[in-house]
Amino acid sequence: MEAAMRSFFLHLAQNRTLSNLAKRYGLRYGAQRFVAGETIDSAIETVRKMNQSGMAVTLDHLGEFVEDERDARASADFCLRTLEAIHNSGVNASLSVKMTQLGLDIREDLCKAHMVEILDYAARHDIWVNIDMEDFSHCQITLDLFREFAASYDKVQTVIQAYLYRSEKDVEELAQMGANIRIVKGAYKEPPTVAYPEKSDVDANYKRLLDIHLPSPGLTSIATHDEQMIDHAKQVIQQHGLSEGQYEFQMLYGIRTDLQEKLVREGYPVRIYVPYGDDWYGYFMRRLAERPANVGFVLRGILH
């Protein structure tokens, strides 16, 4: 049943008609639980509240289905405006970006030009930039470009998905170069030819990736709400005597706030992934796919 619901919501996430309708009618039906409003101002206010609770933030201006250069330019401008808002407000936040938003599917050189603008601005103001990982078809090009950017910029990070067979080898290589990575389980629908179909195998691989990368020189962002993965990370952190600058726990805005607060009380560095913007539909569907219990929040939003 759970697998069927996951497939159902991942299928919905790719529906462009529903995505356009969601943009038109705004944040409704429970999505506001997971998305910090539609404007930069609302996002910065959320960041302030998170900071006051002892948590750092990474901001993501949501976007899907960028098909022309004008939309890619608009997405790059939103990233720059987000960096400007972070700098001007003085909040403790980084920026997360998807390279398809910046034109990767249109022209690689267009995307690279936008990324360099973003990374240059972030470097001038000492702000981290995380390059999100998307579906498997974008994995290799994302890693290739990340390696290129990491050669010139210190505070740039990318994401590795534990459900992919290739990830162990990727993490071994990234650890050797001292790269900064965020480790996630993965939220896209991928075939069993490239991804582990069983949760137990994904969990085992997630632990392997932590074992490989946590002792490395780069920052390891442990992005999970799974307490078994968190406990394993704590063991590795203790075993190697790692300091705060070498790792952080990351969680999604609106999910397991109790666990977020518990980690802060225990003295661990925590960063919350906070999305904002009007193109929230695909992100929202993937959150429902990840945890069907989230559907209950949506139903309560509709009924009240």
UniProtKB/TrEMBL annotation:
Its cofactor is FAD. This is proline dehydrogenase. SUPFAM superfamilies: FAD-linked oxidoreductase. Pathway: Amino-acid degradation; L-proline degradation into L-glutamate; L-glutamate from L-proline: step 1/2. Keywords: FAD, Flavoprotein, Nucleotide-binding, Oxidoreductase, Proline metabolism. It catalyses: L-proline + a quinone = (S)-1-pyrroline-5-carboxylate + a quinol + H(+). GO terms for molecular function: oxidoreductase activity. Residues 43-298 form the Proline dehydrogenase domain. InterPro entries: FAD-linked_oxidoreductase-like, PRODH_bac_arc, Proline_DH_dom, Proline_oxidase. Coiled coil: none annotated. Its EC number is 1.5.5.2. The keyword Transferase does not apply. It is an enzyme of class 1 (oxidoreductase).
